[in-house]
Amino acid sequence: MKKIKDLVEKTDRYKDIIIQKEFASKKNTVAYVTIDGKPRVLKWFVPGLKKNLENEYKILMDGKADINIPNVFEKDKENNVLILNYIIGENLCDIINDQKTTKKEKERLIILLAEWYIDFHKHYRNDTTFMIHGDSNLRNFLLTDRIWGVDFEETRKGRPIEDISRMCASILTTDPMFTTEKYDLCQKFIEYYSKNVQWNLTNVNNEISYALLERIQWRPSQEEMIRKHSKKIRKKGL
């Protein structure tokens, strides 16, 4: 993975930016920077993922008025860069997994997260298809006075249950894993979402079971536990 400093040192248009922090990213190079003293996020796509850049740009531009998502300040096609606003908030994954966060607060946040997905799926729906986030996990959400979604390069046509089941898998497999509280949060998340949309979520338990197996690649040391709970959910439900 390239470093943001490589881009800064070799590209005149970025020579005056100040790098504050690089973020962990599976595919691309992402950093919090300041440009002319203003906080921004710089997302540098690898050459083979130009389509991802265009995909994310299209989603962000289309939904910026209706969905809590970052604003785009610049698309630099020559260098495969997007410049986005920096959202000053806490990562939702850290809050949900913090022992100091009360159960009542966690439940409130899970409802806000369900509302975000409801808004997203409604906005990008047409008569025959839905667009889904595509990389549905707690790390891709921030909390300010509201929930913000980030990272849309994998957004694609799909079924809402794919987003919902993968979010449940993310909730269940972030530490502490598979607690009773985590199961309760998933149930609340699904119930609230289902009651507030006009479409049905089908085969929910099977979808969550499958989504859990997908998570093994990110938690290989916990494979045995994940497989155990995947089987449990498939047979008995949440």
* Strand coverage percent: 15-25%
CATH class of the largest domain: Mainly Alpha
What is the strand arrangement across the widest sheet? 1-2-3-5-4
CATH topology of the largest domain: Transferase(Phosphotransferase), domain 1
Q: In the CATH hierarchy, what is the superfamily of the largest domain?
A: Transferase(Phosphotransferase) domain 1
Class inferred from helices and paired strands: alpha+beta
* Record field, number of beta strands: 10
Tell me roughly what share of residues is in helical segments.
40-55%
**Series of secondary-structure elements, N-terminal to C-terminal:** HEEEHEEEHHEEEEHHHH
What's the Cα radius of gyration? 19 Å
Low confidence ranges = none
**Major beta-sheet overview:** 5 strands, antiparallel
Count helical runs: 8
